């Protein structure tokens, strides 16, 4: 695939405030965060509670009159025990990546019961509710929350969760960040990024199947393998391309690549968790459907937790 023209901006020139406002003016609310996410929180089992950790005040944006203010919630273990390891699960950092949000909720509503006595859980199912409603990768200011996890971040989606974890002294043993790679990465989000930053987009690969992104500074290869083995029971793993790569990054093992998480400002890099991974489900494959995608995200969590239980037991 070759570079696509984007209808906003001047080729070779980075976007300024005017171009970002043009982009924002094109965005529409397409689904309901309240109906598809918040209402499910009322159905949580008794061993979980919800806690609001912030709010995105976007209702006054001049070009989106119907945008709500978005309360941000975590799902947290009621019987917190400092002797137990803590598991952090995040979804919807990129709001358009639906199975990350719904997979996190599905785990909390169905399978968390099997692990609630072994772990403390903090689950943030939808960090970017405006992105969820408008089916967007960016926030309203054309910033990518998954490149914004650093001190003093201007992306509230990123900053508010970091502040919550710091204030509550939550240091997870494991962080699982649930994402998707979609065909719209090529049709919309990569061209928009190239236009916004005045760069040439060299990577157009969309892997057909599931894969993981490990932290290059602490890859924990056996941990990643255990997750892949569990996900294989649910859906297909993305094969490497002819260069033995996925999305332009060298393959480390079946279905696993690595990014240097902290310097890139990735959600996966915001803590010093021993075990961490970022999932990538491919919802546009003809081999999957919505349920399969959500089930794959739950399988990731199950595989990770089972590995930790086994590893810590034999440590």
From TrEMBL:
Signal peptide: none
GO molecular function: hydrolase activity, acting on ester bonds; metallocarboxypeptidase activity; zinc ion binding
Cross-referenced CDD domains: M14_REP34-like
Pfam families associated with the record: Peptidase_M14
SUPFAM superfamilies associated with the record: Zn-dependent exopeptidases (SSF53187)
Domain Peptidase M14: 29-315
InterPro entries hit by this protein: Peptidase_M14 (IPR000834)
GO BP of this protein: proteolysis
Family: Belongs to the peptidase M14 family.
UniProt-recorded name of the protein: M14 family metallocarboxypeptidase
Lineage, opening ranks: Bacteria, Pseudomonadati, Pseudomonadota, Gammaproteobacteria, Alteromonadales
